[in-house]
Amino acid sequence: MNTDLTTVAVSAFLCLWWAVAAVSLALAARPGAGRRHLADRWDALSRTASLGFLVPLCLVAVTWTALPVALWYLLTALTAAAVAAVVLRLPGLPARGPDTGAPARRASAIGNTALAAAVVCSLALFLP
Amino acid sequence: MRTRTIVAACLAALLVIALGVAVAPRVPTLSAAETGDPDLLDRARDLYADGPRDLLGVVEVDGGDTTTAHFGGGADTDFEIGSISKTMTALLLADAIERGEVTEETPLGDLLDLGDAPAADVTLAELASHRSGLPRLSPRVRDIAANIVVFNFLGRDPYRYDEATLLDQARAAGLADRGESHYSNLGFALLGLALAEAAGTHYPDLLHERLLDPLGMDDTHLPRTGADLPADATPGHTAKGRTAAPWLAMAYAPAGGVRSTPADMERFARALLDGTAPGTAALEPRWPSGEDRIGYAWVTTDVDGTEVTWHNGGTGGFTSMLALDREADRAVVVLSNTTTGVEGRAVELLTGQEWS
In Å, how far is B20's CA from the nearest CA of chain A? Predict the structure, then answer.
């Protein structure tokens, strides 16, 4: 394959995005994570779902022949760690935060979950 | 922290890992199951060992001798040959001219119902030499959008259009830089449809009757549906690291819908070299094409003093190259089921010279 620089750059950018999203989620799930902490369970669902959207996006959009496939496994491991961190944190989170941002987080969670589900279902149906 | 939560976290992590492993991209390497001529195997391995590869079939024709090298598969393994199909359509054009069915100046509109669309005015020779000014693909926004999603992201066949849709695409197309060399799959699809119309048949039948059957290319076919594919059809690999959907030979078959085997491509190459293929006038270079010259589809390039007549092919999961040194009576065919290019190294096998 004649991989041009743009293909490599776009692929690397997408992988970087995935890595940042996974690491951010894992860090946000720590108790006392500061301003970026998970505010409530809707927030946890929203951020996990957005990661769930990124994974299939990278599967279909990254030119994996241009990058080491080991990167896929590394990012999968990061994602697994982030999801585990969220599950560990869930019992300590309120179902719905008391602040004014709660409705937005709920809407974001529903939207992100729907988007991730739509992407995963589409790929399951249409990928050869 | 409760044990139940820890177990749930571990299970969630394991689920993510299991899914990730299940759908992980696969980047194959050149098959180690080698058969064929030891010398050619050595030379081909040196040239094609790098990059994502899987099955690779190499055929070297030198006068009356043929040597082969197969990395996985064998002489009868089928590959999508992509745009090498255009050279077959080009031969059909030259043959149809010899038969008096058309001339190279026949306007497309004389054979196809294109109304007063600009495409109606282009000639068959312009289509065959990529000088028609037609765009590379359908210019319709819906087709462009579908192409991006269907081909680029999903790895599916981007050319699943019937003949009526092809005509709609042609009616929607304008001409740009007519007379200059601009590669057009749309143009070649229309050329094949026009030639079939002139002969009063369908393109697959025309190709079989006039080219494939006379040359004994019995394992070369144009699957129009998935059911037409052989049970052991070779899967291709996309650049995204997934299995590619097969490209089926619908209206764009004349531009890239043929599947063939190393054995059949040897027959094709030999018939081109000895002039027994119908319409070999198509190979003669007549127009400039960048730094090269072009005949009907066939490109001629000077490689350090050797005149190489060639065409390559690429689909969603395959690449191919057919290169001829007509003066030396030599040919090289390389067929592959990954998207890693094979062209330059095929010419290197043919001429001994590096070519980029």
Answer: 6
Residue pointed to by tokens 């195997």: B41
In order of B93, B97, B121, B167, B202, the CA distances from B105 in angstroms are 11, 10, 10, 20, 22
Q: Sign (positive/negative) of CA torsion B120, B125, B130, B133? A: negative
Task: Indicate yes or no: CB of A64 within 8 angstroms of CB of B16.
Answer: no
Which residue's entry shows tokens 């003093």?
B305
Chain B residue whose CA is closest to A80 = B13
**Given CB atoms, is A88 within the 8 Å cutoff of chain B?**
yes
| Segment A113-127, tens digit of pLDDT | 999 999 999 888 888
Side-chain half-sphere CA neighbours of B348 within 13 A = 14
Average pLDDT over residues B14-29: 95
**Contact at CB, B16 and A128, closer than 8 angstroms:** no
Rounded Cα distance, B211 and B217, in Å: 8
Q: Lowest mean pLDDT of A100-104, B59-63, B207-211, B309-313, name the range.
A: A100-104
For residue B61, give Cα distances in angstroms to B162, B267, B273, B328, B330.
Answer: 37, 10, 9, 10, 5
* Structural domains of chain B, ranges and CATH numbers in brackets: 34-351 (3.40.710.10)
ipTM for the predicted complex: 0.91
CA distance B356 to B354: 7
- pLDDT tens digit sequence for B281-335: 999 999 999 899 999 999 999 999 999 999 999 999 999 999 999 999 999 999 9
Name the nearest CA neighbour of B298 among B321, B281, B276, B282: B282
A contacts of B344 (beta carbons < 8 Å): none
Residue B339 with chain A: CB contacts under 8 Å: 1, 65
CA B315 centroid distance within chain: 6
